[in-house]
Amino acid sequence: MASEINVFGIDKLIGDLKAYSEKVEMGFNNAVKEAALNTETGAKMDCPVDMGILRSSIHTEPFEDETGKGYEVLTRLEYAPYVEFGTGAKVSIPNGYDEYAAQFKGQKSVAGMNAQPYLIPNFEMQKEQLIAKIKILINNV
Fold this sequence. Notes:
Layout: H1 10-46, H2 53-57, E1 59-65, E2 68-74, H3 80-85, H4 98-102, H5 120-139
Antiparallel strand pairs: 1-2
Helix pairs in contact: 1-5
């Protein structure tokens, strides 16, 4: 005696799963992009202004590498990290950024300039908000 089981709707299920996956990916991408743009806006508001060159150089760029896709908020001005972290005896590095800041360490001893953080505080604030948004996205799926 043969038994038979018929399953209907597999094609619809596969289509629904693909749509679900795309919806989640789009939600993550939108949340990350929003966090990056908010970080950029906050950094521009908080950066010190002399002639406005640093402020106008802060921008957001999409990227894609072996780890995935995302957005980075950056400036290519050589002096930008010295404004963020300070110089000489007045360097101030936020917890968790020691390794990153070390790449900008100078070789000579100077009295220094106070740190005027503009990027990292905004990144940290947006990071917390992004985590909350991702939790909501996951819970609503």
